[in-house]
Design goal:
Layout (H helix, E strand, L loop, with lengths): L34 H4 L6 H7 L6 H14 L6 H13 L5 H12 L6 H12 L37 H6 L7 H4 L13 H7 L7 H12 L7 E10 L5 E2 L1 H8 L11 E8 L2 E6 L5 H18 L2 E5 L3 E3 L9 H11 L9 H17 L4 E5 L8 H14 L2 E5 L13 H6 L5 E3 L4 H12 L7
Parallel strand pairs: 4-5, 4-7, 7-8, 8-9
Antiparallel strand pairs: 1-3, 2-3, 5-6
Helix pairs in contact: 3-4, 4-5, 10-12, 14-15
Length: 448
């Protein structure tokens, strides 16, 4: 008997209703050229029923989609791209609605990013129809779902949720928990704005939240440990040595007998503080907050502030102004290599030759804010870090990438510099900056 004719492949569909398969052709102005990299050849109807949707490549899809978001102004870094890829493996995008919510949950950090996110999603995964509001409308809500695909409903918008009635003791109509006296009520527990700002990474904050965090970071005090100076002062208690002149002078009041000994104690003063901030392209999500930290340290702790990318720039005078906006504007005008590459070894060498040996780094606490992604030879980085180690009292390295899951200092520059550091912290959030302050104030050398 002749073989039955092969079942024709179904065309790709990208319906905007819930339950539509995530097989839409990446048509439109953006993403069309990358469609073959996001999706393989569509499956037949029989194959689709067996696999419950189209098999995608999570890593490529996450990277390309995050790049499109970044071009449209949505701040989504490499950590969120990795989180999106992991979520796609756990929640396969068998429907377009599921793909939307998986991407939105892992990539959107603030409600202000939703319009741009929806526009990018519709442009890449939508059809040739005019753009639709994916956040508020999913087409015909009465349309039946596809076979073998569970119907997914969206939660109610935040403004329509009965939070006030739950807090005041009332419940929704027909709720058994509110009708029964003495029954426990579900009270929503939401994190406050301050708690969210403390625990959220700087790269995941919106522009308004970044401004609020900058004000808090500017008030952060980085107190260095004290050291003894060569000058001394009188001490009523037992000091390090006897002040012979004062003792003899006071003995004249008691007939020449030194009844009370006067001691002297060496003065103590805070150690100098030096901050070196990486402003290269890989540190861009954290640069604005770290510059606020530099500004607060210069005005409050008389610190020396430098930034580096492909060259080293001293910003102490530019950041010495009390007006933060004016100080940051002057700093941006002073440093011409923002968001460039990273020449870590050359920048350290320039600092040591021009400022470090002349006293800026001698006995100081040096804080380096960088992810260690350097273009230099790791041997050169190690050589300059060894020079800095011989001059500084403590070296604190702040790497915001350290907070990522599974992080290991395997990058050439970071691996070469780590043996010479006394503390290695992340500083990726407000809560993590407390570790930075503790590492700076630690009195002794050695790994903290």
């Amino acid at each position: 008997m002749p073989d039955p004719p092969a079942e024709p492949r179904e065309p790709r569909a990208a319906s905007a209703r819930p339950g539509a398969t995530a097989t839409g052709d990446a048509r439109g102005s953006a993403g069309g050229a990358d469609a073959h990299l996001l999706f393989p050849t569509p499956l037949s109807a029989q194959e689709r029923r067996g696999t419950r949707g189209l098999v995608v490549r999570p890593g490529v899809l996450a990277v390309r989609f995050v790049e499109a978001l970044h071009r449209d102004g949505v701040a989504a870094g490499t950590e969120r791209a990795a989180r999106f890829a992991a979520a796609l493996r756990l929640v396969p995008p068998v429907t377009r609605d599921r793909l939307y919510w998986t991407a939105r949950t892992t990539l959107v950090a603030d409600a202000e990013q939703l319009p741009a996110f929806d526009a990018v999603f519709d442009r890449i995964f939508g059809d040739d129809a005019p753009p639709v509001d994916l956040a508020d409308s999913r087409g015909d809500p009465t349309a039946p779902p596809l076979p073998d695909v569970p119907h997914e409903t969206r939660p109610a918008p935040a403004d329509n949720r009965p939070e006030e009635r739950a807090l005041s003791g009332g419940g929704a109509p027909g709720s058994s928990s509110s009708d029964t006296p003495g029954s426990p009520r579900a009270v929503p527990a939401l994190a406050s704005a301050a708690e969210r700002l403390r625990s959220t990474a700087f790269a995941d904050l919106s522009a308004s939240e970044i401004d609020a965090v900058r004000e808090l970071v500017r008030r952060l005090v980085l107190a260095t440990p004290t050291r003894r100076t060569r000058r001394s002062r009188p001490s009523t208690k037992n000091g390090e040595r006897i002040d012979v002149r004062r003792t003899v002078r006071n003995a004249r009041k008691t007939g020449g007998d030194p009844v009370a000994l006067v001691h002297r104690r060496r003065r103590r003063r805070p150690r100098p503080l030096v901050l070196l901030c990486d402003v290269s392209g890989s540190m861009e999500p954290y640069t604005r907050v770290f510059l606020a930290l530099l500004h607060g340290s210069v005005t409050g702790a008389r610190a020396e502030a430098f930034v580096f990318s492909t060259r080293l720039t001293r910003l102490t005078r530019s950041l010495a102004r009390r007006d933060p906006d004016l100080a940051l504007r002057r700093a941006a005008e002073t440093a011409p290599d923002w968001a460039g590459g990273t020449l870590l070894a050359q920048s350290l060498q320039r600092f040591l030759d021009s400022h470090g040996r002349r006293g800026a780094a001698r006995g100081a606490v040096v804080v380096i804010l960088s992810d260690g992604w350097a273009q230099d030879d790791p041997a050169d980085v190690a050589a300059q870090m060894a020079r800095l180690r011989r001059l500084a009292h403590r070296i604190v390295w702040v790497n915001p990438r350290k907070a990522a899951a599974g992080f290991a200092p395997k990058v050439g520059g970071m691996a070469a510099a780590l043996p010479f550091c006394d503390a290695f912290v992340s500083g990726h959030s407000l809560a993590a900056l407390d570790e930075v302050a503790a590492a700076v104030s630690h009195p002794s050398r050695g790994l903290f």
